[in-house]
Design goal:
Keywords: Hydrolase. Belongs to the type-B carboxylesterase/lipase family. GO terms for molecular function: hydrolase activity. With 401 residues, the protein is α/β, with parallel strands linked by helices. It has an 8-stranded mixed beta sheet, sandwiched between helices. Strand 4, helix 5 and strand 5 form a beta-alpha-beta unit. The longest helix is centred in the middle third of the chain and has 26 residues. The two termini are 31 Å apart. 48% of the residues are buried.
Length: 401
């Protein structure tokens, strides 16, 4: 059985957007989608609240997720599920939540496998106590609660409108580390071997950053692209431009999308997978459908937004936010993907009779075998890291998302 953690930058979304009926029917499994507290009030790192709860206050959303797993263990048998065979799965911030669950001592034993989609643990960092406190204070200030003390009481008395307006203008960093709930940042915990070790399925889409570039800089010019790369990457900027020329990609939008995809989601997926593979059975995928739907409301006329962040969701869920239905060929890929995910959830190995074999990544091997999920022909590849220029990006200063 699978417990699904939705994404949405820790600030939006709901489990009901991701129906699990087709997955459950096809794989003869139980799918649970949960809600958890979001936004500043879901991750409110006020030290005065820490006095009320030794686990600190910055991770209410994570506490909700752990409680949902406890509830599942206690009650899922009544729905035909097996409490001794639980897979926790998430995408984007939901994957970041899975990273946190892997590192949270109080989540130990509540799940037995993990799926991380488009949210590698080395990319999605967690704020420490000082940063969480600063973000909570900024939120309180915006809501009209500015004093050095009594902030929690003031927030409890604030109007809903004031809280909504304050949250609307501030990002949410998600669960904080350094407390009793999440003592160590997930990437560090996993790297040290001090985590809730379970088999892992991890991957990303071929062109993750197309979503973000399309929404922020859809009509980027070549001059703007060059200036942005030189400003952002400093001394490495000229080499980035040489490795990602506009002419080779077809447009400044596609070139910048490739730079951002490779330097963030793609290579961090590869690096996170290596860390997992040294310790547990690990299976790596890349979603690659050049005609995949776009998130409804995110389409920009004239731009190729295929394989962008969230593209795979319509293939795994009864997803309510795709801009168009899947074609018959895409439904075939969706069926194969559900069967892979279902097999992994059932046994920890994504082995499906009649479908392409999905070998585990081997520890310490660069260019780990990746299953490429392509509607024309699902296949294995060992060129993922080369395709995304991960050797180059690994030599650059680390950047979080």
């Amino acid at each position: 059985m699978t417990v699904w953690m939705h994404g949405g930058a820790y600030s939006q979304g709901t489990g009901t957007q991701f129906g699990g009926r087709t997955m459950a029917d096809l794989t003869q499994s139980v799918v649970v989608s949960i809600n958890y507290r979001l936004g500043q009030l879901g991750y409110l790192g006020l030290s005065e609240l820490a006095a009320q709860d030794g686990r600190r206050s910055g991770s209410f959303g994570l506490m909700d997720q752990i409680e949902a797993l406890r509830w599942t263990r206690q009650n899922i048998g009544a729905f035909g599920g097996n409490p001794a065979s639980v897979t926790v799965s998430g995408q984007s911030a939901g994957s970041g939540s899975v990273c946190a669950l892997l590192a949270a001592p109080s989540a130990a034993g509540l799940f037995h496998r993990a799926v991380l989609q488009s949210g590698p643990c080395t990319l999605l960092g967690t704020p420490d106590a000082a940063r969480a406190e600063a973000e909570a204070r900024a939120f309180a200030d915006r809501a009209g609660c500015e004093g050095p003390a009594g902030v929690a009481q003031c927030l409890r008395a604030a109007s809903g409108a004031a809280l909504v307006e304050a949250a609307r203008t501030l990002p949410t960093s998600g669960p904080a580390s350094g407390d009793g709930l999440l003592p160590v940042a997930p990437a560090r915990a996993i790297g040290s071997g001090a985590w809730n070790k379970v088999p892992v399925l991890i991957g990303s889409t071929r062109a993750e950053a197309r979503l973000f570039v399309a929404l922020s800089q859809p009509y980027l010019t070549a001059e703007q692209y060059a200036a942005q790369v030189l400003a952002q990457y400093g001394a490495a900027g000229p080499e980035v431009l040489a490795r990602y020329p506009v002419a080779a990609h077809g447009s400044p939008y596609l070139a910048l999308s490739a730079v951002m995809t490779d330097s963030t989601f793609a290579c961090h997926t590869a690096w996170t997978a290596r860390t997992f593979a040294a310790q547990v059975p690990t299976y790596v995928y890349e979603f690659d459908d050049p005609n995949s739907p776009t998130l409804a409301g995110a389409q920009v006329p004239g731009l190729d937004q295929s394989n962008a962040h969230s593209a795979e969701l319509a293939y795994l869920h009864d997803f309510t936010m795709g801009d168009r239905p899947l074609t018959a060929v895409q439904v075939g890929l969706a069926t194969a993907m559900k069967r892979y995910w279902g097999a992994f959830a059932r046994s920890g190995t994504p082995a499906v009779p009649g479908q392409a074999a999905w070998p585990a990544a081997r520890a310490g091997v660069g260019g780990a075998t990746t299953l490429v999920l392509d509607p024309s022909a699902t296949r294995t590849s060992t060129s993922f890291e080369a395709d995304h220029q991960c050797a180059f990006w690994g030599a650059q200063p680390p950047r979080s998302l």
